[in-house]
Amino acid sequence: MPESANVEIAHELHEHGGGGHTGPWVEIAEAVLLALVAIATAWSGYQSALWDGHEAKLYGEASKLRFEANAHESRAGQEQVYDAGTLNSWLQATLTGQERTAAAFEKRFRLEYRPAFRAWLETDPLHNPSAPLGPIFMPQYRNADLAQAAALNAQASATFTRGTDARDNGDHYVRTTVLLATVLFLIALSQRFKAHGVRTSVLALALVLLALSLGLVISYPRI
Question: Confidence class of residue 8 from pLDDT cuts 50, 70 and 90?
Answer without folding.
Answer: low
